[in-house]
């Protein structure tokens, strides 16, 4: 049985401590003690709901649009009690993005995702992130699908809201990294071909693949009218290369082993890493794709804000084709 959950006030990398002051995030290492993935996701989502109104990020929440009559299962926090006092009827506030979203989660389980220099591997973080988003979207009455992939698509679940679907989705996320390389083209291409109704695609991967491949497939998705959120999951050591002593480095995907002196290799590695990251950012910006870095020490709750922001943009911005048409006019 996991130890009691300890929370600590923390902040995401790149953000000031003051920006997150007063918001309690569950420590990732503590979270991973919860073996049941759905329970882990529930803890994160409930913590997110509890903190959203006192959070400095509350301005990111969806905007009020209208009322609708209360139905069993609605969150009582959105009941308008003043309106109840006047009408003796229960009404809840509706929000601009309270629509049924068709959402696909694409989760990378290639061998490189098994890396972790700290307490949490990239794969453990990625599947917890996917489970959290699935649980959150399910509570919002959205249809959630899943594709788990490495070189091939290993699990493929169409978006559903039926009883038991969330349980099947959580079971599919339990798959351990077994493949070698990462083929981003295949799952993105399959989603683009099979999803006819416009929706949201959330790609969770370390993105250790050529930028050109990613740009081509994301462009295809955008041309079909889908909104895309890309979450790059990396171990912090991959972006900082903190190693000091010469050692044998093992490529987890190719199996190749190399003896490297970090003092000599650091500059070339960091230059290559920066070039790849810059290319990813530019490709996503050019395509109108939301791109977020998610190092494994980043509080998982923050990614739900990323999801809300992506949904807000989905309801407020024209499609990629509309923007291209306007530029060509």
User: pLDDT average, as an integer?
Assistant: 78
Count of all domains: 2
**Cα distance spanning the termini:** 62 Å
Number of strands: 12
CATH topology of the largest domain: Rossmann fold
Task: Using the alpha-carbon principal axes, give the shape.
Answer: globular
Order of helices and strands: EEHHEHEEHEEHHEHEHEEHEHH
Helix count, per DSSP? 11
Quickly give the structural class: alpha/beta
Q: Any idea of the CATH class of the largest domain?
A: Alpha Beta
- Using the CA coordinates, give the radius of gyration: 21 Å
The side-by-side strand order for the widest beta sheet comes to: 7-6-5-8-9-12
Pfam families: DUF58 (PF01882)
InterPro entries: DUF58, vWFA_dom_sf
Domain DUF58: 66-277
Protein name: DUF58 domain-containing protein
Fold topology:
Blueprint: E1 7-9, E2 24-26, H1 28-31, H2 37-52, E3 64-69, H3 81-87, E4 91-95, E5 102-108, H4 122-139, E6 143-149, E7 153-160, H5 165-172, H6 185-194, E8 200-205, H7 211-223, E9 227-234, H8 236-240, E10 247-250, E11 257-260, H9 262-287, E12 290-295, H10 301-316, H11 320-328
Parallel strand pairs: 5-6, 5-8, 8-9, 9-12
Antiparallel strand pairs: 1-2, 3-4, 6-7, 10-11
């Amino acid at each position: 049985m996991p130890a009691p959950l300890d929370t600590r006030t923390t902040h995401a990398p790149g953000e000031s401590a003051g920006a997150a002051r007063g918001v309690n995030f569950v420590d990732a290492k503590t979270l991973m003690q919860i073996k049941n993935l759905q329970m882990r996701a529930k803890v994160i989502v409930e913590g997110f709901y509890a903190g959203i109104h006192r959070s400095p990020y509350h301005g990111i929440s969806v905007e009020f649009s209208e009322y609708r009559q209360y139905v069993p299962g609605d969150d009582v926090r959105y009941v308008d009690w003043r309106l109840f006092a006047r009408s003796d009827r229960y009404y809840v506030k509706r929000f601009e993005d309270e629509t049924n979203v068709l959402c696909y989660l694409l989760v990378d389980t290639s061998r490189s995702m098994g890396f972790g220099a700290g307490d949490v591997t990239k794969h453990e973080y990625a599947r917890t992130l996917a489970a959290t988003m699935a649980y959150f979207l399910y509570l919002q009455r959205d249809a959630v699908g899943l594709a788990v992939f490495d070189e091939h698509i290993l699990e493929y679940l169409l978006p559903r809201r039926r009883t038991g679907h969330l349980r099947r989705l959580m079971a599919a996320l339990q798959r351990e990294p077994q493949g070698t390389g990462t083929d981003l083209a295949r799952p993105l291409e399959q989603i683009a071909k099979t999803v006819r109704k416009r929706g949201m695609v959330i790609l969770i991967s370390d993105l250790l693949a050529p930028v050109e491949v990613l740009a081509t497939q994301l462009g295809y998705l955008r041309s079909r009218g889908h909104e895309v959120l890309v979450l790059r999951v990396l171990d912090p050591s991959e972006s900082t290369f903190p190693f000091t002593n010469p050692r044998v480095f093992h490529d987890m995907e190719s199996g190749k082993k190399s003896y490297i002196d970090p003092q000599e290799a650091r500059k070339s590695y960091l230059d290559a890493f920066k070039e790849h990251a810059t290319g990813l950012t530019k490709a996503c910006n050019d395509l109108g794709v939301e791109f977020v870095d998610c190092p494994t020490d980043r509080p998982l709750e923050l990614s739900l804000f990323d999801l809300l922001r992506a949904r807000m943009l989905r309801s407020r911005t024209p499609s990629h084709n509309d923007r291209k048409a306007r530029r060509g006019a």
